[in-house]
Amino acid sequence: MLGVHFAIAPEQERALLVAVDEDELGDFLEELEESWADDSLKVDTDKAWDAIHRCLTDGSLDPDAGDYPLNHAVLGGRHLSEDYYVVYLTAAQTRDVSEALQPIDQGWLRRRFDAIDDPDYIGAGDDEDFDYTWTNFVDVRQFFERAVAAERAVLFTAT
Q1: Alpha helices in 2-72 (DSSP H)
Q2: If one looks up domain 3-158 in CATH, what number appears?
Q3: Which residues pair with 154 in a beta bridge?
């Protein structure tokens, strides 16, 4: 699954939250992806979202694992779909996550990465995998800073 974070505008947030079923949600997501114009308010994490979430929590993909607000950087938050990951954060939660991500350095993330001991983790777990995770983590951290500056809610999708 490929992960994407979007910093959604208030009108997009309202439309998202009134989607009543999977079909409406799917239509919303399709339109969002096709019409997205501001790359500074979007970040693609490819498959690195998996390791990032694991590093920021307890090493699992459990959305409830770990502590708020770090556990909300990827999978924590309001889940809007039963079929795939569509996770919503309010603007206030986005601010909390951004502040929590700022002090994380490469050494801290590496220790957490090396501690992943879940047989379901599909990454290689080697130096190249960590470099890929770190690079994407930095992109996510910068994205959250931009989302806060724009006073936006965040939507994470993995399909």
Answers
A1: 10-17, 22-35, 48-56
A2: 3.40.1760.10
A3: 7, 89
